[in-house]
Amino acid sequence: MLVYFAMAHDASWQIFLLLIPCAVFTFLLSFLIGHFMAEPLRLLQYKVKAYRAGEPVSFDTDGRLYEADELSESMDMLVKRLDSQRADLVRESRRQSEFVSDVAHELRTPLTAIRGNAEMLQDPDLPPTLREKFTAIIVSESERLSRLVNDLLTLQRIENDANPANEMKRVNLRSIASDVLDALHPILVEREANTEIVGEAPDVLGNADRLKEALTNLVENASRFIEPGGHIVIDLCGLHGNSVIQVKDDGVGFGNIDPKLLFERFYRADASRARNTGGTGLGLAIVKSIIEAHDGTVEAVNLPQGGACFIIAIPSIE
Question: Where are the beta strands (DSSP E) in the chain?
Answer without folding.
Answer: 169-171, 194-199, 204-206, 231-239, 242-249, 297-302, 308-315
